[in-house]
Amino acid sequence: MDLSDTSAAVTLVSGLVILTGVIGVLLPILPGLLLTWGGVLLWALLGGGSGGARLLVAVLATLIAGIGMVVKFVWPGKKLKDTGVPAAAVAVGGALGLIGFFLVPVVGLVLGFILGVWLMELRRLGSERAWPSTRAAIAVVGLSLLVELASALLIAVLWLFGLAFS
Q1: Considering the entire predicted model, what is its pTM?
Q2: H or E segment and range at residue 94
Q3: DSSP state, 106?
Q4: Rounded Cα gap, residues 31 and 33, in angstroms
Q5: Which helix H or strand E contains 136, and what residues bound it?
Q6: Average pLDDT, the chain
Q7: Where does residue 40 rank: exposed (0-12), middle (13-18), buried (19+ CB within 10 A)?
Q8: How far is residue 158 from each of residues 18, 54, 80, measured CA to CA in Å?
Q9: What are the tens digits of pLDDT across the range 92-106?
Q10: How far apart are CA 135 and CA 147, in angstroms?
Q11: Are 141 and 79 in contact (CB under 8 A)?
Q12: What is the CA radius of gyration of the chain?
């Protein structure tokens, strides 16, 4: 690949941004879905080549990202409400997860989240029902992560098809 070729350089940078976005979904430090979508837009707008195919990929990626963002919050939010875990417990879990991330890199995020939710549920429900409630909150957060990951991977695959056919 000749990097003096602008189209090749834009494609390479776009691919790296998309890859970073997919990884960012799994390591919630970066806005993964937005990066994945942004990488596709970068490729579609600045990559040169067939404008129609690139525009179609960009429009489809925008739809997937938009639907993914809405579903990421609505579906798990409904599940959270159904389990009876208050949003405050998840918020405290998120805050302790953020603190834990800086105290114990990478695993501190998960440990802090679990600890925060468990402590809130322990205070609210007592020791017998705190852990099942915490597990329900973890499952809801996992569902949110899976929705975002599926959206990012779908956008990445769409971009690969766009590369192949544009």
Answers
A1: 0.84
A2: helix 87-103
A3: T
A4: 6
A5: helix 127-165
A6: 90
A7: buried
A8: 11, 10, 31
A9: 999 999 899 899 987
A10: 18
A11: no
A12: 19
**Hunting for tokens 């017998």 — which residue is that?**
128
**Amino acid in the structure at residue 111:** L
72-83 b/e (C-beta count within 10 Å ≥ 16 → b): beeebeebbeee
Amino acid type, 88: A
Distance (Å, whole) CA 14 – CA 48: 13
Q: Please state, as a whole number, how many other Cβ atoms lie within 10 Å of the Cβ of residue 65.
A: 23
Whether 141 contacts 113, CB under 8 Å: yes
Given a contact cutoff of 8 angstroms between Cβ atoms, the answer to whether 54 and 47 are in contact is yes
Amino acid at 124: R
